[in-house]
Specification:
With 393 residues, this protein is an alpha/beta fold. It contains ten helices and 20 strands. It is 28% helix and 26% strand. Strands 1, 2, 14, 15, 18 and 19 form a six-stranded mixed sheet that branches. The protein has a six-stranded mixed sheet with strand order 11-12-13-16-17-20, with helices on both faces. The protein is globular, with a radius of gyration of 23 Å.
């Protein structure tokens, strides 16, 4: 997951229109364009495909392939062309509702499809899939070297349909297969409760930043009656990010009025995102780890720069760039990296991450107790509690 701006005005990216024009001109036998900036090469390849390639290739296929290729050649893992299915699924993710099996994949190793966590009460959770399991096959498709977006697309689908997964579990050194029936997956992004065993400490976890996360947080704070608590632990471990505006809304509860983040484009133009004046002003500790990324880092970076909380855990992922989603025709779209972001102190954290104020690591294979149900806390949460209690003395 990444942080996104969303352009909801349907339009072609200029270069895509140019490619379509080239393809159209060639396909109808019109004027052959000279080799200006290598466009002649493209025209020549299209001519060869149309006249000499053994199989038939439609204009739609060629436009689709050319568009996808232009984005892929950028070598940016965060910039992608999305066909109709992928584009629709992206907005389902942002809305927190989709048909699937309920698996969140880890960002840590892009060469393997490692399960970060199964979503509670999902088909994956009910089937016993665990954090750390490696997806080696989806139906009959091997996943070695597969991009996460493609894997997610294969696992999602209409509720009631089936998908088979082969998974490797390191703890048993065995590969096993599960057959799952897809369901409607609804993913609440905010969970709040009194910390077990500590009725005066509020605990809030945010799993991602979707279109409704700001509203979810507001409702959670109201339902909990946040003012009755002495302090707050905010858990953003394993939060891969999401919508930029949602991050700004969330950060506004945890920092006073002022800049939350600076968005800087390629021309050097700066868009300053300001807090909305909803600051709680209560003692707080924030939990982060190596998989806290993107929009989660916007919130953590703002909190650290403003000094409104202590960060506990390990260094964050280090994704300080912003993608913009541009709708294209026929329900397709392109997601491009269009800007970088800087924290309120104008720190660039891209590929660097944010260092916590107090470093605490989990033991290898030890699960994080996110939204704990008892007082058996992991070391990071235990340290967060001790740190917060120190603030309250």
């Amino acid at each position: 997951m990444q942080e996104w701006n969303i352009k909801r005005v349907a339009k072609h990216v200029g270069v895509v229109f140019l490619i379509f024009s080239v393809l159209f001109t060639t396909l109808v036998g019109g004027v052959v364009i000279a080799n200006v900036d290598n466009l002649g090469r493209l025209v020549r390849v299209v001519q060869l495909i149309r006249h000499d390639y053994l199989e038939n290739a439609t204009t739609t296929q060629l436009v689709e392939g050319a568009t996808k290729g232009i984005v892929e050649v950028l070598g940016d893992p965060y910039s992608t062309y999305m066909n109709t299915k992928e584009y629709t699924e992206l907005f389902q993710i942002l809305e927190g509702k989709f048909g699937g099996i309920g698996i969140v994949l880890s960002l840590k190793d892009p060469k393997k499809l490692v399960v970060l966590r199964p979503i509670k009460n999902s088909p994956a959770s009910k089937a016993g899939i665990q954090s750390g399991d490696v997806v080696s096959k989806i139906d009959d498709t091997e996943t070695a070297g597969m991009e996460q977006d493609k894997a997610v697309g294969l696992m999602r689908g209409d509720p009631g349909t089936k998908v088979n997964l082969a998974l490797y579990r390191e703890s048993t050194n065995k590969t096993f297969t599960v057959s799952l029936t897809r369901e409607n997956i609804t993913v609440p992004t905010v969970d709040g409760q009194a910390l077990p065993g500590h009725s005066d400490i509020a605990y809030i976890s945010i799993s991602q930043f979707g279109s409704e996360t700001g509203t979810e947080l507001k409702d959670t704070l109201n339902t909990m009656d946040i003012k009755k608590f002495k302090g707050l632990i905010l858990d953003m471990r394993y939060n891969h990010g999401g919508e930029l505006n949602a991050a700004v809304q969330v950060a506004s509860y945890f920092i006073p009025e002022g800049p939350v983040v600076y968005i800087v484009d390629k021309q050097g133009n700066v868009d300053t995102k300001m807090s909305t004046g909803t600051y709680l002003g209560m003692p707080m500790v924030v939990l982060v780890n190596e998989e806290s990324a993107s929009a989660a880092e916007i919130v953590a970076g703002a909190i650290k720069d403003k000094g409104t909380a202590t960060l506990v855990g390990v260094k964050t992922f280090g994704k300080g760039i912003v993608q913009t989603i541009f709708p294209l025709d026929m329900g397709t779209g392109v997601k491009l990296t269009t800007a970088k972001y800087l924290t309120p102190n104008k720190v660039d954290i891209h590929k660097k991450g944010i260092e916590p104020d107090i470093k605490v690591e989990l033991n290898k294979g030890q699960p994080a107790t996110i939204s704990p149900q008892d007082t058996n806390f992991d070391p990071q949460l235990q340290k967060a509690l001790q740190t917060l209690q120190g603030k309250l003395k």
